[in-house]
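chain below, 343 aa
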Amino acid sequence: MNHLVLFVGLPEFASAVESHIDCSIVERDSVEDAVEIFSARSDEFDCVITDHNYPAIDATRLLDHVLDQTPVIVIPTNGSSSVATRMYANGAAGYIDPDTTDTPVETVSDLIHKQIAEAGSADSSLAEENKRLEEFVSFVSHELNNPIQKSRSGLDLIAAECDSDYIDEVDRTLDRMEELVDDLLALAKYGYNSPDVTDVELREVISDSWPTSTTADIEIDSPLPNIKAEESMVKQIFENLFRNAIEHGGPRVQVRVGTIDSPPTDEGDSVSIYVADNGPGIDPEARSKIFEFGHTDSRDGTGLGLAIVDRIVETFGWEIIVTESSDGGARFELHGIPTAPAK
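prediction:
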C-alpha cells in the first residue's frame, strides 16, 4: 500500500524525509492550501507534517481541520516549550523541535512510520472486533427468535383446542417481543456495518415499507427522486417512521410523504424528504428526546424505533429534524440525501 504524507511548509525538510521513508509526499506552502487539498482528499493522507511559524503558518488552525481524521506532527521553525504544550493540548500526535535533536530527519521518519503502523493496527483490530460482533448478532438472532417461533406454534395449537381471552394477550406479547428483538438486532447491525451505497428508487422503497396490515392511509405528495443510499437501511428508516405514526395516530391516521424545496449545496445534488401525519403530534418539549434509546410514550412501543432511524441517518451523514405538520401532527424531515440519476 502506498502511503501519502502531507507536508505544510518545511520544503527542504520534506525533500530530506522523502529519501528516508517509503511514502509519497505532497507539499503545500500555507495552511489555507493544505486545508483545501486535505478537504478534497482526506481519505488518502496517512499523516500530516506541519511547520509552526506564526503568523505565516499557524499549526493550531491546521489541527482544527484535520485532527479527527489524520495524525498531525508539528515541526516548528521557532519552537519552545510553550509552543509544544499548546500543540499537544490541541491534539498533535507528535512534536519535534529540530534544534533539539542531532538527527531530525531520521527522528521524523521514524515517527511517521510509527503513526502509520499504529493506524494500520487500529484498523485491523476494528475489523476483527466488527467480525466478532457480527457473529454474535447472528447467534443472538437465532437464539432469541427460535423460542418466539416455538411459542407461536404452541399458541396456535392451544387456540385450536380452547377459547380464551388470554390467547390474544399472549399473541400480542409475542408480537412485541419479536419487534423488540428485531429492533435490538438492527441497532447492533447498524453499529458495525458500513453502508453499501447504490442507486435506490425511493418511491419503490417507500411503497415496500408501508405496512400491508393497516387501515391507515398513505399519500405521496410529489414525485420522488432516486437517491444514493443502502436500500435495506432506507427501508428501515421509513418502516420505523410509518410504524411510529400508526402507533401514535391510530389505525385511521393519514400519512403524507413528499420532497422539500431546498437550495443546491456545495456537496452536489441532494434532496430533502418529509414524512408527516395528522395524529396527535409531538410536544415541543419532548422533541429533543424522541431519538434517545428507550424513549416512548406508547404502550406498545419499544423505545428503539426512532433511535434506529437516528442511527441510520447519522451513518449516512444526513440530518433529521422533527416539527409539526400542517394538520397538527408530527412531521419528520430528512435533509442532505444525495440524489441519483433516474433509471
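The radius of gyration is 27 Å. DSSP finds nine helices and twelve strands in the chain.
thats it, cya
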